[in-house]
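## Example pair
The file below holds two records. Each record gives the amino-acid sequence first, followed by its structure token line.
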Amino acid sequence: MAQEITARELAKAIENGQPVRLIDVRQTWESQTASIPDSVLIPLNELPGRAGEIPRDPGTLLVIYCHHGVRSQSAAEYVLRLGHSNVRSLAGGIDSWSCEVDPEVPRY
């Protein structure tokens, strides 16, 4: 099972300047409703065909997120099986980010 990162841990990593790549695996309409800045949208159903877009830099923390953390967990496990390292699923998804880090991000 892929490891998780909490919204607060992710915010702290970003704040501290740690290299982070955010992958949003929700649908386009969800991303248009609410997203974390600097995210790359790769809907879960497109992930196999677009996996080459995900950088393989082991020094970069790769954080995958969805609405509540279920789809991102599956995606993170898939990305790990492809040989990526330093991969985390955002626990609680963007909903957690909105509640714990940035209330300006709409909840839906």
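Second record, same layout:
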Amino acid sequence: MENEKQNGDKKGIAVSFYKAFKSFGTTLPIMLGIILILGLFRTFVSKEMVISIFTGDTFQSTFIGALVGSIFTGNPVTSYIIGGELIKENVNLLAITSFIVAWVTVGIIQLPAEAGILGRKFAFNRNILSFILSILVSIATVKTLTVIQ
């Protein structure tokens, strides 16, 4: 009985290692993609380009951040990295936050596919509502951060 338990524990450990290795294998291409995107971002997007897009005006920069995030849809991990680079370029935190929220929630590029699957009315309403909420969530997030600090 004791021997069977040890064999079961060894099998469980082997299965756990296999699952962890498999998870690492699926995550590795994503991480490499993020590194490549970051390299492309640093290469092709100059400080002058960022400054010209984000004007410094709080409302306009927040709107532009949400608009750019809506167009260039992506996964959250990538948005955090790009957001970190924007912080280094002294872009307004409201603009960065609205960019990140819109990047993850609004999907203009995939709108035709979403409309085909879920219906045009639903897809358009969801994207418009997500765009508006990305601005409101960014305002609430930054206001909360200023209260906490």
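Notes on the second record: The mean pLDDT is 83. The first helix runs from residue 2 to 44.
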